[in-house]
Amino acid sequence: MKILLFYINLNQGGVQRMMVNVANFFDHKGDEVTFFLARDQGQYRENLNPGVKILSAETDNRFKLLFKLRTLLRKHEFDTMFTAVPHFNIIALLAKAFANANCKLILSERSNTLEEFKESPWGMYKLSFFLIPILYRFANGIVAVSHGVADDLAKVALISKKNISVIYNPAFNRQMHLNRHLEVAFPWPKDEETKFLIGVGRLTPQKDFGTLIQALNYIPNPKVKLIIVGEGDELEKLTAYSEALGLTDRVFFAGFQLNPIAWIAKCDVFVLSSLWEGFGNIVVEALAAGVTIVSTDCKSGPSEIIEQGKYGYLTPVGNPEEMAKTIQRALESPMDMAAQISRAEMFDVDIILKNYEVLFKN
Fold first, then answer.
1. Are residues 138 and 186 in the same domain?
2. What 3-state class would DSSP assign to 80?
3. Are residues 55 and 14 part of one domain?
4. Domain-embedded: residue 354
5. What angle do CA 260, 185, 251 make, to 5 degrees?
6. Residue 166: helix, strand or coil by DSSP?
7. pLDDT in tens, 298-343
8. At a CB cut-off of 8 Å and minimum separation 6, what does 345 contact?
9. All residues at 6 or more sequence positions from 301 whose CB lies less than 8 Å from its CB, including other chains
10. Please, which residues have CB within 8 angstroms of residue 243's CB and are 6 or more apart in sequence?
11. Measuring CA to CA, which residue among 205, 206, 199, 251 is closest to residue 230?
């Protein structure tokens, strides 16, 4: 089977990580896998199997990208094309039509469609949402990464939820059992009284790390500290905010880390402070680390991953006082490590991607 994966780049991000997992899975199966990227760049590029071919348009212009994809589809015969997020889904639909290509096109929604539309600025990305109810019905298959995403997408796309396949992200792999024991360059204190919280993700408004920093401020114990792993446009703003609250000795910014599970495993509580998600790969990674989880009860995936509080504590979105109280409960009553790891294994790459294999072939 000849498979084409189409996306923007391989930078830090849950979508990129998922696409790499898909590429490696089918490459391992002996299929011919090609990545077509807007830009050939990103930290996850080194995680790709050597057998995966990379082609790049080297443009950020969506119209140029559309016509380069059309040319590629005319030149090569692919069996299946797989893409993600609204504007790339739309480009793929149009390119396939313009090229009169016979390949199956599988779209995927990785985030909450309604929240993404409401929160995104005006531009090509937001405009693409208006084409969802017109064009998505022409896809051969549509994947949503959680039931919450599927519910909202069905409303936006004006299609039946029965036409959407809910496939959770392949967010766990056996290598995580080894990676959680890796050493990290951080001056960990030797006393048992110091407790570490950790948040991981792109430093963007969606992740709402400001609320997490504010929640730390509501925890009076100076021995409770916070590590934030990730990079993004809000670094300067978040650094200034922690300084304004007098938390410079309690908040640490660790930048992007290729194996965040090694950091998570050395902390006491993982906190997801997001305003919304589609799934939440990093929540699965925190489960795999065996740590206790606090997550906002945001749309759409995290509450499904931790089964409405069975494998973690849920807290209201954007409420630092309640988040602080929930974190303190988590510190006082940690979850069972073996149960956390067992739950993570339910999202194993080999288990989840068999669903994609069926979808791609049928």
1. no
2. strand
3. yes
4. no
5. 75
6. strand
7. 988 999 999 999 999 999 999 999 999 999 999 999 999 999 999 9
8. 172, 288
9. 145, 146, 148, 149, 168, 277, 278, 279, 280, 283
10. none
11. 199
